[in-house]
Amino acid sequence: MTTETVFIIGATGNIGTSAVQGALNAGYNVLATVRNASSAAKLFKNLSQTDDSDVNKQRITTVEVDCVSENGVKDVVKKVEKGELPAFQHVYACVGGPYSPTPLLQVDTKTLHEHMTINFESNFFAYRATIPYLLTQSHATSTWSICTGSQGSLGIFAAPAMSQGALFSLCVSAARELQDTNVRFNEIYLALRVETDRSAVEHGVVRASEFANVYVEVLRAGERVRGKRVLVETREDIKGLRWVDKVGDA
Ligand SMILES: NC(=O)c1ccc[n+]([C@@H]2O[C@H](COP(=O)([O-])OP(=O)(O)OC[C@H]3O[C@@H](n4cnc5c(N)ncnc54)[C@H](OP(=O)(O)O)[C@@H]3O)[C@@H](O)[C@H]2O)c1
């Protein structure tokens, strides 16, 4: 049987590193976006904090792309279609970063745009570029996952909150539109702070390699976890999945 591949968009960050680890742990190969060569080096350095195996490194293909630009991920998919990069059956979108604490009335236009562009738009572009490919491939057990933050419900930091709110809406539309397709869509709703392993230990937060288990479980869950918001609100939630439906009856 051919090993399946997970396309991880935003692979070099805290959640991306965890996604790569989770995909490898679940037995998948990885196609990972990197911004440039130094960001690729950062990914391998982050991973080596828990796993220094050459075998695992060989299971990762990196591709340089600007995930924030409208056509960045689309161009990667074109290369996949031409056979220049490995075919993929799964996607995990985890682009993000800006986290300004500025109160709502003081959020200037530049700050608003930065949060919406990097935290929201890039993940929307990733969705728009990869879903047609997955639908066309018709692989029976494809998945599409995204990590959102509970800041979107808390609203303590206005700009990140608004960008997460937009992602929540993207997720409900995606869950609805993909309901009867070959693509099992899920939102991973995170209310804990996750960082790459060394920095997590320093800051007393959750290690990327620990959070990786959530993605392993999502990949392995099968049809019972489709169109869900997977809730990660406590460390217990990392050990076993807990979820609610994204799409209601209304
Ligand atoms: N970490 C958490 O605890 C946590 C909790 C809840 C929700 N989330 C959500 O998860 C998502 C990712 O968070 P994170 O902590 O993993 O963020 P991060 O460590 O800052 O990583 C974000 C990823 O996006 C890429 N990126 C950011 N700005 C970019 C730009 N201008 N151009 C190209 N690539 C860019 C980064 O590339 P480089 O590595 O090259 O910078 C990296 O791959 C966010 O939407 C966040 O809200 C995270």
Automatic annotation (TrEMBL):
Pfam families: adh_short. It comes from the Eukaryota. One of its GO terms (molecular function) is oxidoreductase activity. The keyword Transferase does not apply. Gene3D superfamilies: NAD(P)-binding Rossmann-like Domain (3.40.50.720). Belongs to the short-chain dehydrogenases/reductases (SDR) family. This is NAD(P)-binding protein. It comes from Periconia macrospinosa.
